[in-house]
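Hello again,

I reread your note about wanting to compare the complex against the isolated chains. To keep things tidy I'm splitting this into two emails, and this first one only covers the full assembly. Below are the input lines as submitted, including protein chains and any nucleic acid or small-molecule components. They are followed by the predicted structure of everything together. The single-chain runs will come separately.
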Amino acid sequence: METETQFQVDLGNLMAVDLHHQFHSIPSSREELVKECIAKGTELVQAIANNLFNLPSTEDIEGPLVKLPPPTTRLPREKHIPKPKPPTKWELFAKAKGIKNRKKDKIAYDESSETWKRRYGYDRANDEDNVPIIEAKMTDVPGEDPFAKRQQDKKKRVEKQDKNRLQNLKQAAKVGALPSHVQLAATRLPITGTQAAPQKVTKDELGDVAGIAATATASGGKFDKKLPGEKPGKHKGKYRTVCFLPVIGGKGIHTQEQEQTDKILNKLISKNSHEMLNVNKAVNMYNVKKDKKRNNRPEKSSATSSQLKPRKNLQKKPYNKGSSKPFDKGSKKPFNKGSKRPFNKGSSNKGRGK
Amino acid sequence: MLRVKTPQKARARRELEKRAPKLIETGKKTLILHGMKTSAVLNAVLSDIYHLKKESAVKFSRRNKDVCPFENGGETSLEFFSHQTDCSLFVYGSHTKKRPDNLVIGRMYDHHIYDLIEVGVENFKRMDSFSYDKKLSPRVGSKPFICFIGDGFDNVEELKHLKEVLLDLLRGEVVEKLNLAGLDRVYLCTATSSKKVFLTQCALRLKKSGTVVPRTELVEVGPSMDLVVRRHRLPNDSLRKEAMRVVRDQPKKDKNIQQDTLRGKVGKINIPDQKVGDSFVPNKTKGVKRERREAKLKKEEKEGTEHASKRQKEDAE
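Full-complex prediction:
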């Protein structure tokens, strides 16, 4: 809207542009510039206000309300124009047949209880699922449960409806007119029969797997080039957290290794040793090993050999996890090897396993 | 295999519907963020802009490493943020030796970069440094007057672009009804040279005059700065065409209606041709079915020939 020859006024945006003003000489100081700008600005605002206050206004509580015209300067949109939703299969059919949607009331009359109940939801009117008696028909098969049959039929109908809904949404997605709150997500095909829940892989798990893959080379992944930003693996070569102790050394009588073994033995032989060492289990394990050795050798025919004596307590006793801790937390030596020591008089572990 | 995913809560559903594309758009939200290095001036500029657009702006406080709006790969972070916060305008501040006190103002279309303009800030004066009667201070969210002064806005391409972007940034919501009592701020943009624009905010004072239209007075209030245009990027033609598409409300035409003094209001009803084959006739009557018809015809023929042959035989005999 051009009211004055100089200014272009866009009322919808409350904007005015003065294109004819020229700065012939740039004002000397900043303050002068500012003053001049404000003076010019006042003129422009006055021009807009002239147009604005002359519009028809309605009186409101807060002040005079004015209906603004739409803005004339065109600005780009922020999002694309939404595409209209394609009609669903039912909508097409209804249109062709001429079926009109009739508005239904929320409350309906229930004949069985002779009251007014809601049409849908809990305790609804004319509910077909909760009938106490279903009369038998001539077409009924004797062994069939009619209540279960009704439930199954309903389930099938619901499944069919879901399938149709999905098809309609797929059609809409093809055109690009999927409703804003709906997303179509791909599901994993179920393993036949089982309901395998989709496993979400965590960041740590991924890191572990990546680490395993990285070290699965001939040189253990030491010389591979790393991607920029890739962190070195967490589990480095050394798996033995406790180093072998020096055998010789130290001024005292005992070396470090001797001290370690002494500590262990003291704990075992002490007053509370029964808590630390499960004697029955140790004996069983020893006997079982002996049996295996014997069985590996060429068998002797006699069943009543002196060596094959019936033994007590062939059942394994529950391992006392709480108390049987003969070693320090630092060491990783397995338990059974420790228990063997007081009994391992002659044979060593090397003799096993033929 | 596909499945339908909808939000479980009504609140999430409402949020998604708010962010969906609409036929007629009202306001754009602005995202304010900064890069790896900022100066004191730039910090003040960004926080002042945030205060000007309090309700419709989102300000990120952390540094952002990967944001380079003018480079090919550096836009992905911005597009992601735009998607997350549903902002179509962004103001990115950074400070380097080559480009000190740099502001990149950009717009998005469908959460992809539409256009960019890079300006440098000079002679910045904060909102707090202005002294004026506090009663005049403009309220948050009020619709501003915007004035552009200078012929540069028509001649120079960069300034034309800057004018459009500033209009988008400063104008606020597009409203149909405006309360005249709530008008209290003016933005003045003056093109002082072919590359510089002086931007400032003023409070508006409406004084009584004889007529309905009051007399306007401006008092400088808000931040004032000199914007020096550095680089800019315009959108491609096809993108621009698509973004500028306007949805026209079709005015309802009264067709087939005539007004007559003798007859009054007369309407004409046009009945389309009846489609016999395609209509949804629920039960096809037995006689209509083609096979039955044909079978009937054949039967009649057969009978006819039989009769004829019988007669012949009789005759023969």
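For quick reference: Confidence is low (pLDDT under 50) at residues 322-327 of chain A.

B.
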